[in-house]
Amino acid sequence: MGFEERPAVLNGTESYRATRPDIVGPDVPQKPFPILMSGAVQRGFGRGGKDLGCPTANLPDESIVPMSSVTETGVYYGYAQVSREKDGKAVLAEEDGRVLPMVMSLGWNPFYKNEKMSAEIHIMHDFRGDFYGHDLKVMVLGYIRPELDYVSREALIEDIETDKRVAIKSLARPSYQRYQSDPFFTDARQHNL
After folding, report:
1. Nearby residues of 70 by Cβ (< 8 Å), 6 or more positions away
2. In the annotation, is 120 catalytic?
3. What pLDDT, on a 0 to 100 scale, did the predictor assign at position 10?
4. Which of 14, 94, 115, 120 is catalytic?
5. Tell me, what's the pLDDT at 27?
6. What phi and psi values does residue 85 have, to the nearest 5 degrees?
7. What pLDDT digit, counting tens, does each position of 70-105 carry?
8. What's the average model confidence in pLDDT over 129-142?
9. Fewest CB atoms within 10 Å of the CB: 48, 125, 152, 160?
10. Residue in 162, 57, 179, 54 with CA at minimum distance from that of residue 119
11. Rounded distance, CA 3 to CA 108, Å?
């Protein structure tokens, strides 16, 4: 799927939400996962934190090509790591630089009628400040659900909260936890792919 192809999208309904599983994906990540992405955190629309209570980090458009070329739009889970350093100085707290669970929306955000595809990453951690301009490494390990449109902001928020719970439970399996110490995160030479 290319950046310009906008797929048809289903509506996120109550009946859909009622049938969502608690854990998704096989017990061991399978191709095309893991998918690795990295880049400097960009400013997005600012909707995640302000409008949805779920702050997101946005990667540059070229960083999402490895993902968008082998997968479909939707919500994914995995791990992410924000570099503590910016301009050669450690400016984030040590706990902010750990490898942390994340959920990511890849797509057109039909509720907001985006004009281009984006990857919005929500790292499940309370950061003390923003990290715009910091390098971000993302390892996508599995697929949660397709991209949906919503009749209300509340319905979208409810699905986002479910996505976060599903990601945490799915990542709790030993074969997924081991990726937290993957050389992608620990090897400084793998800083930018």
Report:
1. 32, 35
2. yes
3. 52
4. 120
5. 96
6. -95, 145
7. 888 899 999 999 999 988 899 999 999 999 999 999
8. 93
9. 152
10. 57
11. 9
